[in-house]
Amino acid sequence: MKVLLLAVMVLLVTAADGIEPSQCIAPMGMETGAIKDEDITASSSFEHGNVGPHHGRLRNELDGGAWCPQSAATPDLKEWIQIDLHTVHMITATETQGRFGNGKGMEFAEAYVLEYWRPRLLNKWIRYRNRTGAEVLKGNINTYLESKTVLDPPIWASKIKFLPLSHHERTVCMRVEIYGCRWTDGIVSYSMPQGDKRGTSWEFYDTSYDGHWDGEKLQYGLGQLTDGRVAPDDFKATFYQTNSQQGWVGWKNDTRKNKPIEIVFEFDKVREFTAVHIYSNNQFTKDVQVFSQARVLFSVGGKRYKGEPITFDYIEDRIWETPRNVSIRLHHRVGRFVKVQLQFAARWLMISEVTFDSSVVNGNFTEEEEEEQEEQSSQKDEIAAAGADNKNVVSAVNTPSGLGQYLGVIVGVLSVLVVLMVAVVVFVVIQQRRYKSSPRPSQVPGGCDKAALYREPSMGRLPGSSDYADVRDPEYAVPLQPPQTPRAPPPLHNFLPKPPPVPPPPERYYAATEICNSGFVPPPPPLSTPPPVRLSRQPRYVSNTRTYVGP
Ligand SMILES: *[C@@H]1O[C@H](CO)[C@@H](O)[C@H](O)[C@H]1NC(C)=O
Ligand SMILES: *[C@@H]1O[C@H](CO)[C@@H](O)[C@H](O)[C@H]1NC(C)=O
Ligand SMILES: *[C@@H]1O[C@H](CO)[C@@H](O)[C@H](O)[C@H]1NC(C)=O
Ligand SMILES: *[C@@H]1O[C@H](CO)[C@@H](O)[C@H](O)[C@H]1NC(C)=O
């Protein structure tokens, strides 16, 4: 029981919320060493021991004092230094420095390009482009000054490469750092139709989407819906300000034949979802309104969406035009893919951010094929399928993230205990009533073995309670039964190690006498319940510490 409660507490602490990009700015450990040497690799190095990739750490001066590739930098981008973060991180800034080498260094990169890799993102390296479409980032101007660049949009990646660039051949050396945090939201991609144009000049496209766009559908990437930045209240403002195409992704109902917009989110692991928040525009005077209905479906393998969809109806608001964060409760549904279908309420539907509240479930979840097999076998043999289901539940309970299942087990155990307690109380009350209505004897009848009624304190243990059924404590394990008939006292004292040497008290009346006469069952000692544990939510984890970084 205690173990379970503790597990729930641990679980609440680790439950992840959305990421605040403004807090996701911690150095990720090139300078401090939190990123291990073996996770830093390079295309080549001039001399591994002195200027190998492990020396490419910002503000470090060991040995040669930087990473230096074998060949000079050219516009071809042949050389690179790579950092492996193992899991997806949100990288919000980069910083570079040249080789100072105690004043002897002369090499630095005036410009560089970033490439990144993320699981399931087209299985290739993606060249980073910032919001205005620039690929080349500004590097250093001497061997010692750092140059930091805030990445807008940020990069979601598990590996990142710096490629020094020079328009004329030039020897370069680099020291680098990256800033960001672990991507606990767990979204690895979303797929949806690309946004629409409004008139001739306004494009409500997902401009920062980094996946595949086949002209209609966006696939495998991340973009504006997850970048942690909300669009301005007035969708037109995004087009008046130069340099900020960011903002709303919008769809028009006539091009969709009024069918819902479907967005499929893929997550890193099977997760349990408590809510989704959709930041939506509601400028109804300009034909934009929050969706009228949202349907949310869940799948483990991504092909079949099992179970009833969660349906959410939005009551239309034609009073306030401000955007709103519409929250939909997801009732601890489990999956690795979440499909959201948004129904038009007006000609335009515009959203800017979608965030999920979820936590990882470490169960042994079968992939799609096995799921289908299970389905088939369940048609033939329902018992087998039930067994498989049970296995899933059990494995989820054994891991520290199945919040729903844990609560279920706890509630179950608690209610069994409550029922037991109620039964005991009722039993005691009935027995006492019976005893009160019977005439009180004044004499101790012969043959009543009073010693049998005394017993050692039992420390509040309730014999027979399933929780303690396997407690084998020789001192307390003998359940005491009062004699059923005074004529035939059970030889209990033979079993008791030491019948207490209590002399018969002088009073005419004492409790044991009455108990003997009425066949009263001694009330069980108070049931010990575990101390109430306060399950308080811990302060949200601010994920900009170094402990998050690296393997
Ligand atoms: C994109 O990069 C270019 C060149 O480094 C820079 O001038 C521009 O301000 C950047 N844009 C954004 C939105 O960061
Ligand atoms: C929407 O609300 C949720 C929960 O309060 C929050 O986590 C999320 O950051 C909000 N999103 C936006 C875009 O404000
Ligand atoms: C699109 O929405 C407008 C306004 O709600 C409506 O008049 C129109 O019929 C809708 N178009 C389609 C194709 O459903
Ligand atoms: C998950 O279950 C399958 C089939 O029962 C088994 O082969 C596999 O080893 C299990 N994986 C883990 C991590 O328990």
From TrEMBL:
Positions of the UniProt region annotated as Disordered: 521-551
TM helices/strands, residue ranges: 406-430
Signal peptide from the UniProt entry: 1-18
Gene Ontology process terms (BP): positive regulation of axon regeneration
Start-end of Pro residues biased regions: 521-533
Intracellular or extracellular location(s): Cell membrane
InterPro entries: DDR1-2_DS-like (IPR048525), FA58C (IPR000421), Galactose-bd-like_sf (IPR008979)
Listed Pfam families: DDR1-2_DS-like, F5_F8_type_C
GO MF term list: ATP binding
CDD domains: FA58C
Keywords of the record: ATP-binding, Cell membrane, Disulfide bond, Glycoprotein, Membrane, Nucleotide-binding, Receptor, Signal, Transmembrane, Transmembrane helix
Biased composition (Polar residues): 541-551
PROSITE patterns assigned: FA58C_2, FA58C_3
Highest taxon listed in the record's lineage: Eukaryota
Family stated for the protein in its record: Belongs to the protein kinase superfamily. Tyr protein kinase family. Insulin receptor subfamily.
Annotated protein name in UniProt: F5/8 type C domain-containing protein
Source organism of this protein record: Zophobas morio
